[in-house]
Amino acid sequence: MKLLVINGPNLNMLGIREPNIYGRQDYNALCDLIRETCSDLGIQVEIYQSNHEGAIVDRIQQAYGQMDGIVINPAAYTHTSVAILDALKSVALPAVEVHLSDVDQREAFRHISYAGMACETRFKGLGFQGYVEAIRYLHQKYAKRSA
Ligand code: DQA
Predict the structure, then answer these.
(1) Domains, the chain, ordered by start
(2) From atom 7 of ligand 1, which residue's Cα is the shortest distance away?
(3) Which of 14, 61, 89, 141 is deepest in the core (most CB within 10 A)?
(4) Where are the beta strands (DSSP E) in 8-136?
(5) Which residue has the least CA distance to atom 3 on ligand 1?
(6) What number does the ligand 1 atom closest to the CA of 73 have?
(7) What tens digit of pLDDT does each residue of 23-73 get?
(8) Distance CA 73, CA 8 (A)
(9) pLDDT tens by residue, 1-31
(10) Could you tell me how many helices (H) and strands (E) the chain has, helices first?
(11) What is the C-alpha separation between 144 and 10, in angstroms, rounded?
(12) HSE on the CB side for 6, CA within 13 Å?
């Protein structure tokens, strides 16, 4: 199984940005956990981070016919980007939305998720563990499909 993990703007600042909300562990620690989780499950993973909406759209499009699933934390673009929603719908790959924080318990503008409308499920408010859950979800789905 080949999995693409996409992280949106400012997630490269983990460990520095608002540690009371996002924790003290940095982006490399998140990537290490994602790689370790995927390696344990025999998943080939690519991790992509960008601060640019169009670059994220490009990366989603490139996944078409190449990847078996997408885990995405679109960060602030979650709440604004119809372009990322449309890109996810275009490639029609199984996708799961992740948020480190519980966006529904925060400001009202974080309650809407455009990207989430193209995702099968979401894990929020679990910190880094949300990525592990999302990877497991897609792995289980893929295993069932190929059984
Ligand atoms: C976030 C939540 C978003 O509202 C915010 O803009 C982020 C991170 C999260 O992981 O909790 O940058 O997606």
Answers:
(1) 2-146 (3.40.50.9100)
(2) 75
(3) 14
(4) 44-49, 69-73, 95-99, 121-124
(5) 75
(6) 13
(7) 999 999 999 999 999 999 999 999 999 999 999 999 999 999 999 999 999
(8) 6
(9) 999 999 999 999 999 999 999 999 999 999 9
(10) 5, 5
(11) 35
(12) 33
Which amino acid belongs to residue 79?
H
Query: Where in the sequence numbering do the catalytic residues fall?
Result: 22, 99
Nearest to 18 by CA among 94, 101, 77, 91: 101
CA distance 13 to 10: 5
Substitution site in 17, 56, 84, 99 for ligand 1 pocket (most atoms within 8 Å of beta carbon): 99
Residue type, 75: A
* Beta-carbon count within 10 A of 29 CB: 14
The answer to whether the beta carbons of residues 97 and 121 sit under 8 Å apart is yes
Express each pLDDT in 74-131 by its tens digit.
999 999 999 999 999 999 999 999 999 999 999 999 999 999 999 999 999 999 999 9
